[in-house]
Amino acid sequence: MEENILVKLAKIGSMVDPYMEKYLKSNCSEEFEEIALYQVKVGGKRVRPALVILSAQAAGGKIEDALPVAAAVELIHNYSLILDDIIDRGEIRRGAPTVWKKYGLSMAILAAVHYREAIAEALNDSKHPLKLHDLLAKTMKTLVEGERLDVLFEQTGRFDEPYVVENRRKTVTLDEYFKMVYAKTGALIEASCRAGGIVADAIPEVIEALGVYGKNIGIAFQIADDIIDIFGKEEKTGKAQGKDIIEHKMGNIVILLSLEELKNDEKEFLSSLLRKEPISKEELAKAIELIAGTSARDRAYEIGERYLNEALQMLEKLPDSDARRDLEQLAKFILYRMF
Amino acid sequence: MEENILVKLAKIGSMVDPYMEKYLKSNCSEEFEEIALYQVKVGGKRVRPALVILSAQAAGGKIEDALPVAAAVELIHNYSLILDDIIDRGEIRRGAPTVWKKYGLSMAILAAVHYREAIAEALNDSKHPLKLHDLLAKTMKTLVEGERLDVLFEQTGRFDEPYVVENRRKTVTLDEYFKMVYAKTGALIEASCRAGGIVADAIPEVIEALGVYGKNIGIAFQIADDIIDIFGKEEKTGKAQGKDIIEHKMGNIVILLSLEELKNDEKEFLSSLLRKEPISKEELAKAIELIAGTSARDRAYEIGERYLNEALQMLEKLPDSDARRDLEQLAKFILYRMF
C-alpha cells in the first residue's frame, strides 16, 4: 500500500512541478532564478498538491482546473519552509543546505517574498481566484499563529530575542497543543482539500467534508511526526532521535502525555531537561527511556487514530471513486507510515 | 507650499490608518496584535496611499473606492520596511526601534508574513481585485529585484553571506543604478498611481499617464534622497551625513557621477573607502569634500528635474482638478523638499 501511494504522489508531483517553476520564473530576473528555484528543486513528497488534485477529482472536478492552485499550495509549503529554517536556524533539509545557509539571510528573505508573489500569480490563474485568495490569506495568517506558538512553546534558547524569552510558555496544555498543531499543520492541509473542492465547483457540503477530512489528517500527521520524533531511529528517519527534546520543544504530544503520568521527580527531570542547553547523550537517552515507560506513545497513537477515523468518515459523504480511494490510502499512510 | 502638501498627506493618512488596522487585526490572535500593529503605528508620511487616492480622484473616481487599495500599498511599503531593516540590520527607524530589534528576528519575520496576508485581504475588498492582485504581485517581485541589486551594489560587508560576497558588483553603471532605483522605489509608486486609476475605472491612456507620472516621481524621489544622503546635515535630516558611504553603498547617483569626474588617485581613494570598514570621520569628511568638488550634485539635481518634468507633463493628459493640482504639488515637493 505504502509504495502504491508514494508512487502516486511522485506522479502528481511531477505534474505540479512545471507549474511551480512557471510562477517562480515569471517576473524573475535571470540572475535570481537559481535562488528562486532552489527550494522546490530540493524535492519533497508533494502531499499537499496531491490532496488538492485528489480532492478536486473526488468532488467531480477536472485535474487541469486543479493544477494552478495545487502549485500554489505547494509553493506556500515551501515558502513556510524557507522561513521556518531561518527562524529555527536549520542548516540542513532533505539532505541539502537550507536556503539561508546556502545563499545567506538576505537572499533567503528575498526568495521567500518572491515565493509569496508566485503564489498570488498562481491563484490569479485558478478558477474562483477571489475565493482562493481569501482562503489562503486566512490560512497563511493561521500558519503565522502556529509558528508563533511553536516558538513560544520552546523551553529555552533564543536569548537574543527578549520578547520570546519573556513570553514563552512554562506549561503547555493539550488544548494549546492542538491549537498550535492545527494552525501549524492542519490549516494548510485543510485549505488544500477545500481548494480542490472549490475548483471542482463542489457544493458547500462537499467542500466542508473535504475540509474536515484535511484538518483531521493534518493533525494526525503531526501526531505521527511527534511519535516518530521521540521513538524513530535516526538510521530510518534521517533525523536525530528526540530532536524536539534537543530543541527544547514542548509542543510534542508524546512529551505532553508523558508529563501527565510521570512521578514528581521524573517529571521534574524531563521538564528541566527541556530547559537545559546543551543536553548530553546520556540525558537524552534517559528522557526517552522515561517517556517509553509511560503509556504516552500508545495514547498518542490512539488519539491519532481518532483523527484518522474522523477523516475517513468524512470521505463517506463523497461518491465512491478512484480519487476517494486514494484519499483514504493517503490518510492511512499518514498514520501508519511509521510501522 | 511644503506645509500645505504635508498637511494634506497627514489628513489622507488618517483616513487610511483605520483600514490598515482593520486588515492587520483580521485573522490575528489577540496576543499577536501588538506586534502586528507596531510598524504602522510608528508613523510615516503616507505618501503612497495619498498617491492612490489623489490618482483615483484625478481620474474621476471616488475616494471610498480607493481606500482599501490605498491601505494595501501602504501595507506593502511597511512590509518592505520590516524586511529591509532585517536585511540591513537597521536598529532605529523613525526614532523608534525596528520590529526585529524590538521583538526579535522570529517575530519580525512572522509579522512580515502577516502583513502580506493583510495586503491580500485589502486587495480582495477593492474594486477590480484580480487586476490589483496581478499588478501588486508583479510590483513586489520587482521590489525583491531592487533590494537584491541594492545589496549587491554594496562594496563590502556581509561576510556571513558568501553568495553576496562572491556576487557583489565591483562597478555600477548609471544604467544599472536606474534599474535598481526603479525596482526599489519607482515600481511601487508607479503601482500606487496605476491602482488609483484602476479603481476609478479610468481608460487605459489615463492609467498609463498616471503610471508614468508615478514611475518618474519615484525615481526623482530616490535621486533627491541620494543628494540629501551625501550633503544633508544630520541636524536637519535626522540621518548621519554620508550614510551610504558609511554603509558601503555604491547605489547612490551622486557617488556614481562624482566617480566619473574624479582624477585617478581621488577616484581610487573614494572607491577604496567604499570597501573599507570601518571608516574614520576624517575619511568620510574628505570623501564628501571630494564629491562636493565635482559637479555631481548639480548633475544629479538636473537629472532629478528631468524626471520631475516628465512626471508633470504626464499630468497634463488629465483634466484639471484639485486632485491633479495636488499631484503636481506632491511631485514638486519630492524634489524641492531639500531646499
CATH superfamily heading of chain A: Farnesyl Diphosphate Synthase
> What is the count of structural domains of chain A?
1
In spatial order, strands of the major sheet of chain A run: 1-2
Could you tell me the mean pLDDT of chain A?
A: 95
Query: Architecture of chain A, CATH level 2?
Result: Orthogonal Bundle
What's the total number of strands of chain A?
2
**Low-confidence segments of chain A:** none
| Structural category of chain A | mainly alpha
Oligomer: homodimer
How would the global form of chain A be characterised? globular
**Radius of gyration of chain A from CA coordinates:** 20 Å
Range of strand content of chain A: under 5%
- Main beta sheet strand tally, sense and closure of chain A: 2 strands, antiparallel
Helix content estimate of chain A: over 70%
The termini of chain A sit apart by 12 Å
CATH topology call of chain A: Farnesyl Diphosphate Synthase
Highlighted features:
mainly alpha, two-stranded antiparallel sheet, Farnesyl Diphosphate Synthase, homodimer, 339 residues, 17 helices, 2 strands
Structure characterization notes:
- 2 copies of one chain form a homodimer.
- Chain A contains 17 helices and 2 strands.
- In chain A, strands 1-2 form a two-stranded antiparallel sheet.
- In chain A, a hairpin with a 2-residue loop joins strand 1 and strand 2.
- In chain A, helix 3 runs antiparallel to helix 4.
- The longest helix of chain A has 28 residues.
- The mean pLDDT of chain A is 95.
- Chains A and B meet through helix 4, helix 6, helix 7 and helix 8 of A and helix 4, helix 6, helix 7 and helix 8 of B.
